[in-house]
Amino acid sequence: MNTTQSMKVTDIKRDWVVLDAKDQVFGRLVTRAATLLRGKHRPYFTPNVDCGDFVVVVNASHVKFSSLNKLKDKEYFTHSGYFGSTKSKTLEEMLEKTPEKLFYLAVRGMLPKTKLGRAMIKKLKVYKDEKHPHTAQVGKKD
User: Fold this and answer.
1) Do 94 and 76 contact (CB within 8 A), yes or no?
2) CA distance 50 to 12
3) What is the pTM of this model?
4) Among 77, 92, 78, residue whose Cα is nearest residue 26
5) DSSP bridge partners of 126
6) In this structure, are residues 19 and 59 in contact, taking their beta carbons and an 8 Å threshold?
7) pLDDT tens-digit profile of 22-78?
8) What is the 3-state secondary structure (H, E, C) of 47-72?
9) Within 10 A of 86 (CB to CB), how many other CB atoms are there?
10) What region, left, alpha or beta, does residue 73 occupy, with left being phi > 0 and alpha being psi -120 to 50 degrees?
11) Banded pLDDT at 13 (limits 50, 70, 90)
């Protein structure tokens, strides 16, 4: 008789995964990052336990999009709560100035909207260029 195996936090071994965003389609890369953060790629995935890996995204500013119109048409809104304080930036402006924030917003939308999701997003590290301070973690495997 087969039984479903539920993992405990102490049994989980996390890996460090580096995703190179250079010439990758943004949506597919973000979906891959969300899957790795959540742990859905593992055979022992448990929805109520954070069993995902750490994800490092490099070359975030060199990502490409499936549509050229999307760069100018898509807008991101922020609102401080005060009247008349709505600000908007296009996708092109976000990609030039803060590509890290662009990745965080997209991945956060794909994770659970709970304490568990907030813990998962902390394992995402995004860098504009190839340089990142996680070479010791990502380095050699046992």
Assistant:
1) yes
2) 9
3) 0.87
4) 92
5) 57
6) no
7) 999 999 999 999 999 999 998 888 888 999 999 999 999 999 998 879 989 999 999
8) CCCCCCCEEEEECHHHCECCCHHHHH
9) 10
10) alpha
11) confident
